[in-house]
Amino acid sequence: MYKHKYTVVICEKPSAAKRIFQALNSSRSDQSRPDEVGFKKGFQYLLKSGSSLLPAIDKKGHCYIICHALGHLYGLADSKESSSSKPFPVFDPVWLPLSSNRSNRYSNSKFLKYKIEKLLREISEVSKGATGFIHACDYDQEGEVIGYNILQFACNKKYDVSKRAKFSTMTDEEISGSFENLLPPNYSLKDAGITRHMIDFIYGINFSRVLTNSIRKYQPDQSKGKKFVPLSIGRVQGPTLAFVVDRENEISRHVPIPYWNIVADFVRKGREGGEDDLRDGEEKRRPFDKNLKKDGQNVNLIRTLYFPQKIESKDLAMTVRKECKDQEGVVTFARTFKNIIKPPNPFNLGDLQKEAFRVFRFTPSYTLSLAEKLYLAALISYPRTSSQKLPPNIDYKNIINNLSSYENKASQAWKTEDDSSSSGHLQQRLSVHEICQRLLKKSVNLNPNEGKQDDPAHPAIYPTGERPKKGLEQPEAKLFDLVIRRFLSTFGTEAEASQTSINVTVKEKYIFKSAEKKILSKGWIEFYDPYFDYSSFATGESFLAILKINDKLRNIHIEILEKNTQPPSRYNQSTLLQKMEKEKIGTKATRSEIINTLYKRNYIYNFSPRGNEYTSGDSQLSKSSENLRKFDKSQIVSESNSDGDGVSFRSSAIRPTQLGISLIRSMQKHVPIVVSTGLTRTMEERLSNIESGESSSDSVIRHAQTMVKKGLESFAKNQDEISKEISASLNTDSQTLYPESKSPRIITLGKCPICLRGDLIVKNSAKTKKRFAGCSTYSTDKCSTTASLPLKGVVKGTGKNCDRCKWPVILASGVNAGKRYQWKLCLNRDCPSKKENDSRK
Q1: pLDDT digit string (tens) for 653-696?
Q2: DSSP symbol at 216
Q3: Other C-beta atoms within 10 Å of 183: how many?
Q4: Which has the closest alpha carbon to 56: 3, 9, 103, 119?
Q5: For residues 244 and 576, is the Cβ–Cβ distance under 8 A?
Q6: Per-residue pLDDT, 318
Q7: What DSSP letter does each residue of 148-196 carry, written as one string?
Q8: Is the separation of the CB atoms in 54 and 119 below 8 Å?
Q9: Is 818 left (phi over 0), alpha (psi -120 to 50) or beta?
Q10: CA Rg, the chain, in Å?
Q11: Cα–Cα distance between 489 and 400 in angstroms, integer?
């Protein structure tokens, strides 16, 4: 049956299989040799229309049949899943095809189930006559497990006899080189990956199952045919959600404490005894313009803050203002020093996700998906890496030379989220071609500025120098441009900046301070434009730098700003990812997916502060002083991104739902092991030790089983209390129960005017099913504030409060009798303005 010797190649995805097929075939000079024709004819029964298999012959005449997966084709399942009792704990899971694993989402899709079964049949059939096997999935833990399961189960235990192809880019050259230098199976990588899956499974299934069973009887409306929605908690999910809940607790416990700042403007006295200060007139009433003018000439203001910055007594602030108004000041301290800004390190995955969020507001998971597309198109190296070091064996000059012929014309029109902060610095952005030409003209060797972090599997992310074979979507082109400019910037020269600080003393007693930073030489920053963050640097001519000790200044304006202490900021997806990295929980490849899972479980949601929440005084300060403008940026949230995917607009914050809060509070109180950051970090260290060969898989799994047993014992002792605590949040908002609802997203209308702690959110009556506005703290603080809402149409908050009663004002819109309407309404049914309108009628 099999006349030709051939090797089966296992790839992770269809696109990867296609690239390897192209790379192996492109290495041959003669595309129509007789051996290829005979090879294909010999497998016509397998290579029929619709087959996923790809035949290839390399330059040496080696024959391959390239197979692909769809990511994981096998998953862990409870070996006693069919048992009616489903006993605890579950410590003996088995690997099953996802098409037959009832606990997996694939089993509910007929198309995906058919596709998986078809792939496994084809791989199993073609493996029977193979003389060799090559594992060509991604070279990391997940990729190793994907290939291992296919080789073991579909190919009948062929992992031990297989060879490993290792490559970090999908270029023809590197793929061909990896097939010429095949490696033995990486047992440590495989053991670490399988152990991670085992531990995550036994944590997840045991705690999720006992949690779901305990609250099943408390979920409302099951008798009315409502779908029961199980709850879940995982080894990394728990601590990550706890970060969000703990931060929310800090914010809710925060008691604003008033304090006062004093902002003062000075001008320099003339050298010949005259003064450049401003007299009474129109200009003096506008003292905070950037450039004031007298007789058509610019008057440079020196904007200062009184020191100490926080004044705890208003009386003291009033005294300082009275004593210093219109008085002479003397420069008693003046210092300017220069510092060097080194070129950035090459991107690893975490750095790329953080920078893409800052620049484009791409969520971490969206950035990863775009980076994977660029990798599969052979445009960048493998993105799932923690390394900040570039491989020494790649030809930097060749890559830069190839990049010099590529220019994304659309990049000139892009606006980043931080473009406003770069105004005044940005002159003419260098094209990629111009940057490459500058680097290629260097007489010295090209040496990138590398970071400390390393990854034994893959180097830092870098462009391969390949040109796109087809047009890129704009998000892909944006990320590609970011990677290219970051890579080129690592070869740039150091930038130079100056930092100037001065003290102005009034009446030898009152001290005012001012400081500014200014870029003197851009160096590599010129290569990285428009992505460099200029927000902390001054624009225009520097006036502070020319001041000397004993220079005389005159105060022309002084203002007291009343403020309040602020709570810590809520996490966004980027800062939550950084927190996970700092605490060393999860992996570079799974952290963004963990955050997405919290969205999907309705444990967290995107939130935009309404009105003046926690910003009292800041808005005034931002209008008063350019140096402090960045304290109070506008906040926008994308209502279409409640699940955390795609683009998250400026300053969108993450907030826990009542379900998420109740779950964490209950676990911290009764089963702390589930949300322990320390235990999760220790487990991550043990898993890393498996990959490095310092620990065995069995010992790590036994340790995890011991921890799970202790957790289940704690759960059993407190099951009734846990059930009641979590069920209370389920009863609060029916939208957390039924994700099939047309609008599962929590809609915040404004701050509760009664308790001042919760938000008025859209709820549905359990009896009438009609919607109404209710306080989000009902389940925790028993705030029973409610308000009526229009029965139909769309309602949303405006971020404003009623001038008369201070209740939130909402916007209601829809269609009535064929006509579109849009109303602004105060939620307070007893608002004085409504009574006045009624009396007029």
Answers
A1: 999 999 999 999 999 999 999 999 999 999 999 998 998 889 89
A2: G
A3: 12
A4: 9
A5: yes
A6: 95
A7: HHIIIIITTS-TTT-EE---SS--HHHHHHHHHS-B---HHHHHHHHHH
A8: no
A9: left
A10: 32
A11: 11
